[in-house]
Amino acid sequence: MKLKPDQIKSHFAGYRASATPSMAPVYLVSGDEPFQVGVACGAIRTRARELGYAGREVMYVETGFDWDALHAAANSLSLFSERRIIELRLPTGKAGDAGSKALVEYAQRPADDAVLLVITGKLDKAVMSSKWVGALDKVGVVVQVWPVEVRQLPGWITQRMRAKGMQPDAEAAALLAERVEGNLLAAAQEIEKLFLLHGAGQINARAIAAAVVDSARFDVYGLVDSALAGDATRTARMLQGLHGEGVEPVLVLWALVREIRSLAEMAYEVHAGTAMDQVMAAHRVWDARKPLVKSGLKRNTLTQWQAMLRHAGQIDRIIKGVMPGNAWDEILQLALLMAGARFRADSTAAR
After folding, report:
1. In angstroms, rounded to a whole number, what is the distance separating the alpha carbons of residues 305 and 267?
2. Which residue from 286, 266, 262 is spatially nearest to 276, judged by alpha carbons?
3. Residue 20 has pLDDT above 60, yes or no
4. Is the pLDDT of residue 216 over 50?
5. Is the pLDDT of residue 16 over 90?
6. What is the mean pLDDT of the chain?
7. Residues 234-249: what's their mean pLDDT?
8. If DSSP codes are grouped into helix, strand and coil, which group holds residue 236?
9. What is the CA radius of gyration of the chain?
10. What average pLDDT does range 313-335 have in this prediction?
11. Is the pLDDT of residue 348 over 70?
12. Closest Cα partner for 337 from 245, 271, 263?
């Protein structure tokens, strides 16, 4: 059975409605968003404790892990014969031949006095189609956790606040989403703080602004995507966040130049008459990134992409101390040029 994280509670409600309260013998939780993975696993542990699974045995699958340990745990009687959770942590999601065999065998004969909770990183399509995942899915529950996208974050925040009896208006949810962009743990902590300060009821943007600190989490790849998307305001804010977090300018420049060089090459081929879709296929652009790349190619000309490369070369010399100037100011200008902003210097270089 496959469930989304927000379906876990209703899943347990179904079990509670049965004549004999129970839960599935196996749960697999996978994903690379730590907060949501933690919430899902917490709900499973809570339900297990309610049913008397008081013990907990944790195993970390690392290089050299002995998969016989899972078999031994499943067949051993715990101290005082208490029921327990066997928690198997598989960060890479790669079980290997031995692990796959062990998990399939466990699924065929689950322990009577234990619930198996397997926690993994994000599983790709090949692993999701593997025998061991299929075996666990057949007898238990598979929960896949996906990151909350920027555009989905206000809705996620609104839902979580309403669950606590708070009624945020649209402006309040949008402001909180902006302040904690991408950081669900920070969002949850701020919601808890707001609840302590204001309790249930209406929450407006003024209350958010007064109580919430800026705990946005930024990364250089997100900056590149924002610039490619043409969102100049968000690009500037993300760059400010990277600067504030102490990220080295050379790392930011590297990420921007890597993308600019690729776009310049593609723009050259498009300029020469090759169809844009054909060019992206030749450069192995992922399907998820094709809209961003296409947007960038349509927004900036070949001459402008080449001018950006020359500008990047100047920034590199500024970082190395060969030229005078402020590297962060120049990186901001470069990122905004990618996003479609136009400056006098850019216009001159583009001639």
Report:
1. 8
2. 266
3. no
4. yes
5. no
6. 86
7. 88
8. helix
9. 25
10. 93
11. no
12. 263
Q: How many residues appear in the chain?
A: 351
Q: Which of 47-51, 83-87, 195-199, 284-288 has the lowest mean pLDDT?
A: 284-288
Distance, in Å, from the CA atom of 202 to the CA atom of 172, rounded to the nearest integer, reads: 10
For the segment 45-57, the average pLDDT, to the nearest whole number, is 88
* Of 85, 81, 142, 131, nearest in space to 108 by CA: 131
Q: Sign of torsion, CA 84 89 93 95?
A: negative
Paired residues of 83 in beta bridges? 53
Decide: pTM greater than 0.70. no
Question: What pLDDT, on a 0 to 100 scale, did the predictor assign at position 245?
Answer: 82
Q: Which residues of 307-326 are buried (b: 16+ CB within 10 A; e: fewer)?
A: bbeebbeebbebbeeeeeee
pLDDT-derived band at 55 (thresholds 50, 70, 90) equals confident
Identify the H or E element spanning 74.
helix 68-75
C-alpha dihedral sign at 324, 325, 327, 332? negative
Query: What span, in angstroms and rounded, lies between the C-alpha atoms of 139 and 108?
Result: 8
What's the chain look like in SS3?
A: CEECHHHHHHHHHHHHCCCCCCCCCEEEEECCCHHHHHHHHHHHHHHHHHCCEEEEEEEECCCCCCCHHHHHHHHCCCHHHCEEEEEEEECCCCCHHHHHHHHHHHHHCCCCCEEEEEEECCCCHHHHCCHHHHHHHHHCEEEECCCCCHHHHHHHHHHHHHHCCEEECHHHHHHHHHHCCCCHHHHHHHHHHHHHHHCCEEECHHHHHHHCCCCCCCCHHHHHHHHHCCCHHHHHHHHHHHHHCCCCHHHHHHHHHHHHHHHHHHHHHHHCCCCHHHHHHHCCCCHHHHHHHHHHHHHCCHHHHHHHHHHHHHHHHHHCCCCCCCHHHHHHHHHHHHHCCCCHHHHHHHC
**Which DSSP letter does residue 297 get?**
H
pLDDT at 350 over 50: no
Please report the pLDDT score of residue 146 as a whole number.
87
Region 87-95: mean pLDDT is 88
142, 1 Cβ separation under 8 angstroms: yes
